[in-house]
Structure formats: C-alpha cells, structure tokens
C-alpha cells in the first residue's frame, strides 16, 4: 500500500496568532519582533501585509521600518503560540496518532490507514477548514507519498491551500524547481551544487552518486535520494520522544562582555540550567561545546572531551571557561555565549577512572550539586547561587516559557 503523508504548515504562525487575538491588527502590516533592550531586535515573523513591503524574517527592526513606515511591531507571546500549536495538534489527532512535529507550527501526519475518512486531499482539506473554523488560523498542506515531498508541497502554495505531489507525476511537477526548495539543501549545500551547475531538483536527481559523495559526503547521497522520491523515513507517533543528543543553553547579553570575568559569570549562570536538564533526562556529559558571537556577529565554536562524565554545573563551568580562555582572542567584545553538554552518557553508565582521579573530591562535588539542585527546585532558581552572580549582571531577563523543539537538542 502506498503511503499517504500530509505536511501541515500554519501560515505566518506568530503573526497570525497576534492578528487573531487582536482583530485591530488584521488589515495592518504586522511584524513580531524580539526585544530591542535585550538585543533581540529582529523580525521573528510577519504577516502577508508586511511581506508585501519586502519585510523579511531575520532583519533588524530598523531595516523593516525603512521598508514599511506603518509597520506595527508586536512583542512575542510564546505562551499563546504554544497553546495554539497544541490545539492544532489535537485537531490532527482526530485523524491519526502518527503526528511528528517539525518546529512549533509544522507537523507531518501519516494518514495511510485513514481511507475511511477520505483521500489524502480530502483529509487535508477537512483539516484546513477545521483549523480555520476552530482556531481562526490558516494552514497550507502538502499531500504526497513521502515526508520530503509532503513538506515541499506545503511550501509550494500559500496561504490556506493544498498541493498534491503524486508518485506517478512528481518528476513533471517538481524537478523544474530550484534545488534549494528541497529539504536538506541549505545555503551552504546550494552554493556547492550551484558551483557545479546543479540548479534544479531534476539536475540533482540525475547527478552521479560518486560526485555527490565526494563533494557533500553522506548528505549528498541523502538529498539525491530525496530528489528521486525515495525517502522512506517514517512519521513518528505523537508520543515519540527524540533521543537527547545534547543539552545546551545560550543567551545574548544586554551589553557586550569585555573581559574573562564577565564571560565566567555568564557561563556559571548558563550551566545551572544545563545541570538541571542533565538530571531531568538522567544523562551525564562526556564533553563540552561552547560558542561565542562577537559584536561584529562573527561566531566561533570550540569543543573538548571531559575526562569523567558528569552532571556537575561547577565542573561543566570550569571546563567551558578553560576552553574559552585557551582559545578566545580578545579582538572584539562578545555579545552572545552558548554552552552545550555533548557526548551524553546514561546516568548509571559504568565509568572507568584513571589512577590520578580524586574520586572522593568528585563525589563530594556531585553531592553538593545535588543538594543545591534540591534547594533550587523547592525554593526557586534564585534561592541559592554563586556569590559572583549577585553582582550587576549583563544577563537578560529570563524567558517565561521554555520552548522544546523536536531537534534532538534541549535548549
């Protein structure tokens, strides 16, 4: 039996939710933007009225204002976006339990066994009309025989539309499209392909395996498989939880960091959250990765292994800072820092110590961190903290809603 896969994409999600909650915004150009004070002053989402002026996601607010003087700037309300995302998934759940999120506003649905409810197109159309009636939001849906083409279909016609890509006619329909339209072909990959005269999905599909593997590695073979309609990846069940591959936390500071002491304070704060999440997921970190972005928006990354897998925020902070101090040259101040625990092990995984490890000291530190964690859990995150963190901080105010995305990384 040929699979029937839907990809449902909620149109201009953040901006659409804001316009639905505030009808006065409906016919105005609207952009949902981050906080200028906390240096997140970029466009996160825009509605079609703003898009008509050329406003694009990711540009600075002042740039968007130059394009559209009447642009209405709205701050994000993540709790509302999470609520409507959940409500949409409840609607999808009326048709199948195989619902795989792809971000907050997109989902794949496998409705292969739902023939009694109609064809793939009929089910997608019913979902589209239900979402509009019950939530006041519009979706675009792709209907196909695999996930890659269903995603491609939902992008082809927007808003409030359905596109079908059938197995017997996909070549005529999509091989003429730019290769960059295909999931898995990002900017860097597109640049490589374009450099060798590969511009369309059809040209990608006809390229030799050896050439793609030589230039793009395993990803080259994967995107050729996608282009030829050979994707057979399953749509996960709605209760599926992606394996946690790394646990990280990062921030953009309110003012630039200008010396090692300020970076140390930020890292100490970041690893408290990482330690909590490691304990929640019953993992230990076997490595640490750090990323910095300077005030010219240039990013540098480093990583290293940790001798003894740990959950200790103190040990993680010391390792991260030592890695930073060894590698960062203070040519420019720093505006953002990210720390990630990588090479994760199960909490109860046996550990081989070497002869020089102070096991008693490690055990004391682990028990101390566990006690601190209990205090923070009972009385709040600020109930106990390192003394250095009580000084004037360049850390931004904390986000009220944690966003958990299906990427294999908890952030």
Radius of gyration: 24 Å
Distance between the termini: 39 Å
Strands side by side in the biggest sheet: 5-6-1-7-8
* Chain-averaged pLDDT: 89
Helix content: 25-40%
Query: What is the count of DSSP helices, taking H or I runs of 4+ residues?
Result: 14
SSE string, helix = H, strand = E? EHEEHHEHEEHEHEHHHHHEHEEHEHE
The assigned structural class equals alpha+beta
Cofactor: Mg(2+)
Main location: cytoplasm
Catalytic activity: DNA(n) + a 2'-deoxyribonucleoside 5'-triphosphate = DNA(n+1) + diphosphate
Family: Belongs to the DNA polymerase type-Y family.
Structure description:
It comes from Gallintestinimicrobium propionicum. Mg(2+) binds at residues 9, 105. The active site is at 106. By secondary structure, the protein is of the alpha+beta class. Helices cover 38% and strands 21% of the residues. It has 14 helices and 13 strands. The strands form three sheets. A five-stranded mixed β-sheet has the order 5-6-1-7-8. Strands 11-10-12-9-13 form a five-stranded mixed β-sheet. A three-stranded mixed β-sheet has the order 3-2-4. Strand 5 (99-101) and strand 6 (106-110) form a beta hairpin. It is globular.
Give a summary of the structure in a few sentences.
The chain has 411 residues and is of the alpha+beta class.
Spell out the key features of this protein.
411 residues, alpha+beta, 5-stranded mixed β-sheet, 14 helices, globular, disordered C terminus, DNA_pol_Y-fam_lit_finger_sf, DNA-directed DNA polymerase activity, cytoplasm
């Amino acid at each position: 039996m040929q699979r029937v896969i839907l990809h449902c994409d909620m149109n201009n999600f953040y901006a659409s939710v804001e316009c639905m909650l505030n009808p006065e915004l409906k016919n105005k150009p609207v952009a949902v933007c981050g906080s200028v004070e906390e240096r997140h002053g970029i466009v996160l989402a825009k509605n079609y009225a703003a898009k008509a002026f050329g406003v694009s996601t990711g540009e600075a607010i002042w740039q968007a204002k130059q394009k559209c003087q009447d642009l209405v700037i709205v701050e994000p309300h993540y709790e509302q976006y999470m609520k409507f995302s959940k409500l949409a998934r409840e609607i999808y759940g009326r048709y199948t339990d195989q619902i795989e999120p792809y971000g907050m506003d997109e989902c794949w649905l496998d409705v292969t066994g739902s023939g009694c409810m109609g064809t793939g197109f009929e089910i997608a159309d019913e979902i589209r009309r239900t979402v509009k009636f019950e939530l006041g939001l519009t979706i675009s849906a792709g209907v196909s025989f695999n996930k890659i083409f269903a995603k491609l279909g939902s992008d082809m016609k927007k808003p409030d539309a359905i596109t079908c890509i059938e197995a017997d006619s996909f070549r005529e329909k999509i091989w003429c499209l730019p290769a960059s339209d295909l999931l898995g072909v990002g900017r860097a990959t597109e640049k490589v392909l374009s450099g060798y005269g590969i511009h369309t999905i059809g040209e990608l599909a006809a390229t030799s395996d050896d050439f793609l593997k030589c230039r793009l590695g395993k990803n080259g073979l994967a995107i050729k498989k996608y282009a030829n309609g050979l994707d057979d990846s399953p749509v996960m069940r709605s209760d599926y939880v992606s394996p946690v591959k790394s646990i990280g936390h990062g921030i953009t500071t309110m003012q630039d960091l200008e010396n090692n002491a300020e970076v140390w304070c930020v890292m100490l704060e970041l690893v408290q959250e990482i330690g909590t999440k490691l304990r929640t997921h019953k993992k230990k970190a076997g490595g640490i990765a750090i990323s910095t972005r300077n005030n010219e928006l240039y990013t540098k990354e480093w990583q290293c292994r940790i001798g003894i897998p740990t959950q200790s925020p103190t040990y993680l902070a010391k390792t991260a800072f030592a890695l930073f101090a060894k590698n960062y040259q203070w040519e420019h101040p720093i505006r953002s820092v990210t720390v990630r625990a990588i090479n994760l092990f199960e909490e109860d995984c046996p550990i081989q110590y070497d002869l020089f490890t102070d096991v008693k000291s490690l055990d004391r530190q682990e028990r101390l961190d566990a006690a601190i964690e209990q205090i923070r859990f009972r009385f709040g995150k600020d109930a106990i903290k390192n003394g250095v963190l009580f000084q004037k901080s360049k850390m931004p105010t904390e986000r009220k809603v944690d966003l958990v995305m299906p990427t294999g990384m908890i952030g």
